[in-house]
């Protein structure tokens, strides 16, 4: 059950917060109706010498699950609090 909810949560963030292709979650926990993920997303940047650097960010993301479905309103609130969306 947690794995299904974690997948729904990751899908929501991919659709609404612009996660890059290749983003996945490393772990998931649940407290009542809130599923919290550690999202791993690939990043690419240029360092101070001009060299291209590849890496991965790890950022928490939370979703509200109600009746087996994402509660969009509360999930947006969690995403704003986590600085995923404005």
From TrEMBL:
Q: Where is this region: Disordered?
A: 50-86
Q: Where is the composition biased (Basic residues)?
A: 77-86
Question: Ranges of Polar residues compositional bias?
Answer: 50-61
Protein name listed in UniProt:
Uncharacterized protein
| Species this chain originates from | Delftia acidovorans
């Amino acid at each position: 059950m947690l794995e299904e909810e974690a997948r729904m949560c990751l899908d929501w963030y991919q659709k609404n917060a612009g996660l890059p292709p290749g983003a996945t979650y490393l772990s998931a926990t649940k407290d009542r109706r809130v599923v919290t993920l550690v999202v791993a997303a690939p990043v690419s940047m240029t360092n101070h010498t001009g060299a291209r650097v590849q890496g991965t960010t790890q950022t928490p993301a939370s979703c509200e699950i109600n009746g087996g479905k994402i509660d969009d309103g509360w999930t947006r609130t969690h995403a704003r609090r986590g600085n995923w969306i404005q």
